[in-house]
Amino acid sequence: MRQTFDESTDPSFGSQHVPLIRQAMSRHGLDGLLVPHEDEHQNEYLPAANDRLGWATGFTGSAGAAVIFQDKAAIFVDGRYTLQVRDQVDQGLFEIRDLVEGGVTAYLETAARTGQTIGYDPRLHSPDALERLKVAAARAGAQLKPVTPNPLDEAWGMARPSQPTAPVVPHPLQYAGEESSAKRARIGQALGASGADAAVLTAPSSIAWLFNIRGGDVIRSPLPLGQAILNADGSARLFLDPVKVTPDLPAWLGNEVRLETPEDLPAALKDLASKRVVVDPGQSSAWYFEALADAGALVVRSEDPCALPRACKNAVEIAGARTAHARDGAAVTRFLHWLATEAQTSLPDEIEVVSKLESFREATGALKDLSFDTIAGAGSNGAIVHYRPTERLNKRTQAGSLLLVDSGAQYLDGTTDITRTVAIGEPTQEMRERFTLVLKGNLALARVRFPAGTTGSALDALARIALWERGLDFDHGTGHGVGSYLGVHEGPQRISKAPNMVALRPGMIVSNEPGYYKEGAYGIRIENLQFVTAPEPVAGGERPMLGFETLTLAPIDRRLIDRELLTPEERRQLDAYHARVLEVVGPQVEPDIRAWLVEATAPI
Prior knowledge:
CATH architecture of the largest domain: Alpha-Beta Complex
Oligomer: single chain
Radius of gyration: 24 Å
Strand content: 15-25%
Helix content: 25-40%
CATH topology of the largest domain: Creatine Amidinohydrolase
CATH class of the largest domain: Alpha Beta
Number of domains: 3
CATH superfamily of the largest domain: Creatinase/methionine aminopeptidase superfamily
Number of helices: 21
């Protein structure tokens, strides 16, 4: 099993560790300390050694923050984690607050007191976020102070896990579709055209993409932790822990890339004196901006120059994604067949469900890893958006309930992410109605055509309108970007209520995952991945329009669909999708599963 069901934290972490943190704060003369979820690379998913928020509070979600004062503390999470945080964190020690509405800045304005000093680690905060926090503290009469070493790290001490040292390996051209030298040349040319001499890269996904390398330092993502400096002439300096450098890596990188160690980075930044250097304030921490300014470089705040090219997959990457999803679709279909037959009477628990799905993916022989820990929520656990089964929380499926399974895989040719909600026994009419409303949103977002320049934020309402009409909604984004054998969550594009200025472009892969969650009862989510297609003329129209092609191939539970709530167009669309599932997946599965699939994909 690649996924375990042990809990790495528990609510006692706060009472165990906060006193140690406060002692370390006292040694630094601090009244408070900022504890973000992000690490030195602004990662969403963290190596164990960098999960400072989890160690301090017990909370293991992928987004959050805490503020620890000597006499009080607060933890901040978004709508995905409102249920999880209550289960994982000692509420007698931490006040639970909303990360989005007001967040840490609003808390500092009211919780900090005149004359207090609040510490922060400059390697863990983006400069823009840090500036907002400084303003908020100043309004309360307090001040923020950079502290090195981090008091939390001092408190963690010898118990802190070691930094990961997974081997860094080449990512072959048959999957990448473009030589690293060509990528570096065109990105470097764009830097030069903008008047910049170099860019400092700290995002692991950008480094993996630019140099056509992969690693294993970040859980569930084939990412190497490191830094790079890309020059306008296409040459580069790549900073990796020597223990991670495999024998064939130097030759793979070529003569234009100089391999160095992380200890060489401060001196390398000093070499950029008087140069115009691009650094992304959303990806790189304040430490880089301060180091470059101290070196006399002219810092240009701009988006990571690799982010947009990385997001727009080339033809080879799109072909790989189709192949990966066809393979994954067969594994998921075998799993759904098991759920629809044997599991209806054996009523497995969540751990059995997760283990079964993983075994089908493992049987492909191509699985490199999961793309995230599988979410399998039976009944009321399905209403916890980012729930993960554990030995303590494990729940058995029951007749008359719903099972939500959100999972994904990492293959050399692509990254997958799929959610299916399945009826166990006979669903209620309410379940069928709410499921169908979610399905209508998924179908609307899959078939939309839109002009160039359209952002994901402009499309988000399409996935919600059917729910809104019934006074319902969901508290998470509708779609996130997905990498090509990289992170399952990848920017800069997304589909959500939150404003996003990045236009959707051909080759971008995004998820389409509306949902509905009834706390204490059940959860519903339907998720497919889809990519943006090139603009095409519309019959009788005046402008070519972009659209989406769905990558994910697995049946949607027809037992949960209220046919009368679907329009004729929606029925045709669903039937066409299911026909494609049967065409692509049917030949890959065993005869008995194919016979079931014929029925599962029959016209609605």
